Amino acid sequence: MSDQAPPPPLVLNIQYTKDLSFEVPGAPDIFPQITQPPAVDLRLDVQARPMEQGPSLYEVSLEIRADAKLGETTCFIAELTYAGVFSVNVPEDQVEPVLLVECPRLLFPFARNILAEVTRDGGFPPVFLNPIDFVALWQQRRAQNGIDGAPQGTA
Length: 155
Description:
Elements: E1 10-23, E2 39-50, E3 57-70, E4 73-88, H1 95-121, H2 134-144
Antiparallel strand pairs: 1-4, 2-3, 3-4
Helix pairs in contact: 1-2
């Protein structure tokens, strides 16, 4: 009998800001015009890719873009890619939901904080992302790709 315990199903090895951009195209003239919080259009995407270092290593990225406007005037554009490298040791049919649901759940609070801080530090009210239903996001992606039924094991 072996004394080695099986590897944990999911390990976050490292997390990091992969890309961060914050632009205020109308600065400084835009600031006196701001009498109310601007309307913010948010877009979020999740990407996962296998790493060359091993068959169970994956990089998962949350890509967030926030465009803020007052009427037709752009206040700011914030783009953030926040990523992590995960060890995934689950059956093949569970890899996709782990990568596209569980991994982003672990990364989300950190990405949310970065976006709030950068918008606040940029002179605007902080943008606080509402909690994301990553299960619904994953299911929507599968529906757009014409995949029904059980997970296929790829991301």
